[in-house]
């Protein structure tokens, strides 16, 4: 019996080796912080411990100190069936495919379209129909995209106007534009070269914070731009009549067309909606096609090149079907986390 017991004791263990080596936690965090974010969903499957680390605020702080922050695309969609805004994040898989994933803690956001980004935070400005308990204290919310938590800014209230407020950011400050004239509906606001540009149903206007005066911009007024974005101080918008992406350079004060996109746009003539966003120095497209209840949402990333003569050319780097459902596109947002 003693020999048998001794033999069993000397037999090699058949238990699998530990998945995580015995390393100090700060070293593990340092290693994970250097990994591309597209690998985080896979890393989360390793263990509950690793899952807690890749979703912690500590790893985001470490990434920031290492200079390993990334551009992440968030998309706010209006869920038509449930009458609520929901926030999704674009997940790029290691194999190159993409999909929109619902952020559980951001599955019920205020109705409206006034979302602006500053650093790793999204600010929600203005009317909040389904956040009544917070409106008493503030009608500005902040979303921390490192922890996906929502807070109101105490003591900050934006006066309600006859129309929805518009908002954007200049030099770290949020500028909010409100208006009371129902006949002059402002449909879009963008910032270029430190100036605010806004359009109503007839004309475009420019506002320079240092002067505090609105002026009409005749060149920008030549086209009825909307749902636009700005990349490297150039405005981009989709012209539904000409079925092209139009550009406006405020320095040259001239309109143009984004070259190299003709075939891509022709193949996708069935769009119902399209929104654009500056995405890490490139042009991000979020568009919707299909019928009610089974609408398909697509995302695409377009690299930009200015060639001799001033023409701007675009190249579609990737385009994926990322979600299906009964949605309307509210706002795509480029967040640094």
Automatic annotation (TrEMBL):
<dbReference type="Pfam" id="PF25210">
    <property type="entry name" value="Kelch_FKB95"/>
</dbReference>
<protein>
    <recommendedName>
        <fullName>F-box domain-containing protein</fullName>
    </recommendedName>
</protein>
<dbReference type="Pfam" id="PF00646">
    <property type="entry name" value="F-box"/>
</dbReference>
<dbReference type="InterPro" id="IPR057499">
    <property type="entry name" value="Kelch_FKB95"/>
</dbReference>
<dbReference type="InterPro" id="IPR015915">
    <property type="entry name" value="Kelch-typ_b-propeller"/>
</dbReference>
<dbReference type="InterPro" id="IPR001810">
    <property type="entry name" value="F-box_dom"/>
</dbReference>
<dbReference type="InterPro" id="IPR050354">
    <property type="entry name" value="F-box/kelch-repeat_ARATH"/>
</dbReference>
<feature type="compositionally biased region" description="Basic and acidic residues">
    <location>
        <begin position="1"/>
        <end position="11"/>
    </location>
</feature>
<feature type="domain" description="F-box">
    <location>
        <begin position="17"/>
        <end position="63"/>
    </location>
</feature>
<feature type="region of interest" description="Disordered">
    <location>
        <begin position="1"/>
        <end position="21"/>
    </location>
</feature>
